[in-house]
Amino acid sequence: MTTLIDDICLRMIAFDRGDAKRIQHFLKVHRFAQLIGRGEGLDEGTQFILEAAALVHDIGIHPAEEKFGDCSGKLQEQEGPAPARALLTEAGVDAAAVDRICYLVAHHHTYKNVDGDDYQILIEADFLVNMYEDDLPSAAVRHAYENIFRTATGRRLCELCFATDGSNF
Q1: Which of 37, 13, 39, 17 lies closest to 27, judged by CA?
Q2: pLDDT of 130-162, one tens digit each?
Q3: Contacts (Cβ under 8 Å, ≥6 apart) of 2
């Protein structure tokens, strides 16, 4: 699994070549997703899908910008599955895993009807990074904590990263 994840990571770095901000983003999301998945005891197959999805979750940004001049969350979801499928297939990921990863890419900005631990954890990992990168105010962090975070590990990481007054949420 590690070798394939590393291959996907390198392919994504090449895909986003020259865009250090986006590369740094998906690397951070991957690491949080990996940590949360391990903390929640995911089985190996689900952990692989989660980690691969974390690496490619924003692959639709460049295609959306090229096609529409915009990269909103919905456009990322719309434009991401095709290049994700191509990258993952070229890396040798099996078809069933590719299908699930592409589903996650197509829904990672959709927070209703979350169907699976991999989906929930991907959302949490992306939120952890986005809340920091967007420098969200504490009220917005608390709102996300109360309404988005469901896993014990994700909630703990949110507390540790954003509790600036020393208290828990």
Answers
A1: 13
A2: 999 999 999 999 999 999 999 999 999 999 999
A3: none
